[in-house]
TrEMBL record:
Recorded GO MF terms: oxidoreductase activity
Pfam families assigned to the protein according to its UniProt record, in alphabetical order: adh_short (PF00106)
Lineage, top ranks: Eukaryota, Metazoa, Ecdysozoa, Nematoda, Chromadorea
Protein known as: Uncharacterized protein
Lineage: superkingdom: Eukaryota
Gene Ontology annotations for the cellular component aspect, listed alphabetically: cytoplasm
Sequence similarity: Belongs to the short-chain dehydrogenases/reductases (SDR) family.
Length: 254
């Protein structure tokens, strides 16, 4: 079941922009909110919004509390009393950092701030709107049609694959941050169960994608990645709560 309303962070380019394009193809989705740190510079988003009344562009910086607070009010204006059905935490950074390189706390902390802390804070700030959608939905099953937090994670957060020497040597900080993202997703699931909050939380690895972050030698295009993710969104259910999956919903080991 697809959600009626979706908010995506980091929508100005790459996977985020690709998700916006694919979500616009789903007629059941009535409201798509594309978040970007600098909307004025997001020319592709601006162009899309001119032809799509369902698409709204929102200034949001997940590392800035004031920006998050202000964005909640604006999203509430877009979705109204029915609340927000789905938050996609897509915003992220990838800076080279390796064990045998020069120590650089700033790179490590910036990576954590955006990829892990920013996604967690966005989830918390928008939780009241997600809960509003959840409470107003019939039944008790977890689904994107009810309320869902979807993290765009990475297979490099898998400790099993990491122990086996998976991935390259330059993404130490990135791998740490994505492991932290997966950890908070699992923790949210446990806490939501204790608090009786009916919000599905899951994490999807988009694949190695040809973007500014993924580089030109990556395996798949943005369209190949995001079209699969959007198809998978329509299939999400309680069995995916707290898990790590690839874009086709094949489970990835922890």
């Amino acid at each position: 079941m697809f959600p009626k309303s979706v908010l995506i962070t980091g929508s100005n380019r790459g996977i985020g922009l690709g998700l916006v394009k694919e979500l616009l193809k789903i007629s059941e989705i009535e409201t798509i909110i594309a978040g970007a740190r600098n909307p004025e510079a997001a020319k592709d988003l601006q162009s899309l919004s001119k032809d799509n009344s369902r698409l709204h562009i929102l200034q949001i910086d997940v590392t800035d509390d004031n920006s998050l607070k202000n964005s909640v009010k604006k999203v509430e204006d877009f979705v109204g009393a029915r609340g927000l059905n789905m938050l996609i935490n897509n915003g992220g950074v990838l800076d080279a950092y390796r064990a045998d390189g020069s120590p650089n706390k700033d790179i490590v902390m910036r990576t954590f701030e955006v990829n892990a802390c920013g996604a967690l804070l966005a989830s918390q700030y928008f939780l009241p709107l997600l809960q509003k959608a959840s409470v107003d939905s019939p039944g008790s099953d977890l689904s994107p049609g009810r309320a869902c937090i979807l993290n765009i994670g990475s297979d490099c957060s898998s400790q099993e694959l990491n122990v086996n020497g998976f991935n390259d040597k330059i993404h130490l900080a990135y791998k740490m941050s994505k492991a932290a993202m997966l950890s908070f997703a699992r923790s949210l699931v446990a806490d939501f169960q204790n608090l009786d909050i009916k919000v599905l939380v899951t994490t999807i690895h988009p694949g190695w994608v040809i973007t500014d972050m993924g580089g030109p030698d990556a395996d798949i295009t943005v369209e190949e990645s995001t079209s699969a993710i959007v198809k998978s969104i329509g299939k999400l259910n309680e069995s995916h709560n707290g898990g790590l999956f690839d874009r086709h919903l094949k489970e990835i080991p922890f």
